[in-house]
Amino acid sequence: MAGRRSVEVARSTRERILRKAADIASVEGLGGISIGRLATDLDMSKSGVIGHFGSMEELQLATIDLGSEIFKRLVWDPALPEPSGRQRLLAVCDYWSAYSANPPYPGGCLIATASMELAGQSGPVHERLAGYLTLWHRTLAAEVRYGVEHAQLAASTDPDTVAYILQALTSSIKTATHLSAVPEAADRCRTAMRAVLAGDGADPTDGLR
Amino acid sequence: MAGRRSVEVARSTRERILRKAADIASVEGLGGISIGRLATDLDMSKSGVIGHFGSMEELQLATIDLGSEIFKRLVWDPALPEPSGRQRLLAVCDYWSAYSANPPYPGGCLIATASMELAGQSGPVHERLAGYLTLWHRTLAAEVRYGVEHAQLAASTDPDTVAYILQALTSSIKTATHLSAVPEAADRCRTAMRAVLAGDGADPTDGLR
DNA sequence: CCTACCGATCGGTAGG
DNA sequence: CCTACCGATCGGTAGG
User: Fold this and answer.
1) Exposure letters A73-89 (e unless 16+ CB within 10 A, then b)
2) Which terminus of chain A, N or C, has less C-beta within 10 A?
3) pLDDT at residue B208 in the model
């Protein structure tokens, strides 16, 4: 009825606000989000915007949550049908580099931008992001470990190092493409990722050359 | 005399302002710099701060210049005595990873932070940073090319890909250390870098595994 | 969800 | 280099 409908409307307004906040943050960082600007862009009042969250900090936390959900949906979920280990990792790399090269935000991956911005700061927003990134690193490392244990990757492979390398290669696509005049960054990333996961019995830290 | 002395004083004040601006930007990005905050931190008036630069944009440009100078002094200059090619690249990687793991700023490498922040934006500050990064990428790639031409690195090596990989590995030290609970990031970066430049005749994109 | 408002801070300038 | 000031915008609240 009326109550149900208004709850639904409120939820969709909240989502509209968060999508806009994520778009802004992808370009200028979470610090670029402002209540007044969101209100102007969305044709709302400032109190209408912040009323959904209570404070700027809560809005930033919700933006991080949305960014994490979108990342999971576009990079991890579609790779899940693949068998565990090397094959799943190869699929993750494909979806991940495609996501980074053609991001669902105007300014590139929101998580990558926020990571560099929040790395040196402290507080709840830092902690929230750190939780997601630590989880992702462990997910990747666990997948590598599975590959090693099932002889899909060389026994000398260090799961944490490979997870680190994959993360580094993807998060540099944004800066390389837009700042270092390296438009082919996404291709180079994919080449390097597949070399790391070549699985021809060589040690993964051979694959980078 | 008095004139000379005042010029010198002004220059040293300008440098104090820029050092502080660089420290702030390394933590919060160039957007975190504010004239009022610099004035408070340095016990000056706001007009005393901005008078040295004319505008916020000029202050940010000067901060980028300082960051580039510091990077060159700590990473490139000390590697120059090494012979061109693979040996010089190995030295660059040592200085670079040490600089990234133990940066001369409270918030990590200023250039890395500003790169992610400015990648999606446009304007003079973006252009200034892009110039430095493009130059650095070309410097690295040229050094790799020299190594290939002198049989220090495998003939199949792609200089641009190797330059991309080295840049990616170092710029992720900051986020991995502070957000992904990977305190050994600097070691992993160095391991991967040396693998890329192993020079044992294998293709560099073998080195990553 | 709105209007109307709060104190604080923003970049920048005038005048000295 | 300073004080004093400008209009604009910040996050947030009161009251409806």
Assistant:
1) eebbeebeeeeebbbbb
2) N
3) 74
